[in-house]
Q: What sequence folds into this?
């Protein structure tokens, strides 16, 4: 059984650019959550998708947006990148909304 | 809203000694409680979780945690640590209803000294 995978592993962007991060959920999982983990901090919830619909959002501005596809994979898009967006972005999938979340290895984004 | 406080940012301990990592939470609703471990350059791995029932929860790698509702605590313990336990540990909570988003503490860096 393949676990949660994320791409790319690392990414370097400059301020003002846009970025798309990708996540493939574990087989049989229909829920995907995204988290931002700044250096030295715990992960912070960005949003959750359940069966292609947004099912909750944390305290992040609208320039953070997402998508979930029919195969339940997901994208996180960030527009107008700022230096403070530099972080590890974690994706987690679960079998349903209230089931255990399984985390991917993350994408390290550096904004210069 | 929920919040989590991990009282120790760093905990050094000698190999084979016991360890306790402390976690307190605050919530206006009933919550589930979790401990995750993060090894360098990796994602999060679930160590254990409290959903209901017995307040003493056993997890992987010999870890256990005790839920104390009156003190709103969920401390993580291991009777004898190994070098391989060196990692970052996160306590987290999620509400029983609504989106299943996890609220994390700031983490405790456990360093096992040979």
A:
């Amino acid at each position: 059984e393949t676990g949660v995978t994320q791409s790319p592993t690392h990414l370097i962007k400059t301020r003002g650019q846009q970025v798309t991060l990708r996540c493939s959920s574990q087989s049989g999982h229909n829920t995907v959550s995204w988290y931002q983990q700044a250096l030295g901090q715990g992960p912070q919830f960005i949003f959750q998708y359940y069966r292609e619909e947004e099912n909750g959002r944390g305290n992040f501005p609208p320039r953070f947006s997402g998508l979930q596809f029919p195969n339940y994979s997901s994208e996180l898009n960030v527009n107008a990148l700022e230096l403070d967006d530099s972080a590890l972005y974690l994706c987690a999938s679960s079998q349903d909304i209230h089931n255990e979340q399984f985390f991917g290895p993350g994408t390290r984004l550096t904004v210069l | 809203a929920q919040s989590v406080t991990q009282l120790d940012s760093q905990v050094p301990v000698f190999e084979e000694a016991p360890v306790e990592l402390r976690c307190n939470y605050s919530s206006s609703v009933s919550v589930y409680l979790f401990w995750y471990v993060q090894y360098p350059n990796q994602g999060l791995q679930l160590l254990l979780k409290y959903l209901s029932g017995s307040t003493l929860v056993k997890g992987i790698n010999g870890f256990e945690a005790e839920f104390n509702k009156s003190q709103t605590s969920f401390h993580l313990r291991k009777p004898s640590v190994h070098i391989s336990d060196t990692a970052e540990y996160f306590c987290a909570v999620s509400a029983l209803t609504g989106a299943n988003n996890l609220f994390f503490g700031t983490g405790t860096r456990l360093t096992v000294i040979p």
Q: What stands out?
A: DSSP finds no helices and twelve strands in chain B. Chain B touches chain A through 22 residues (CB under 8 Å).
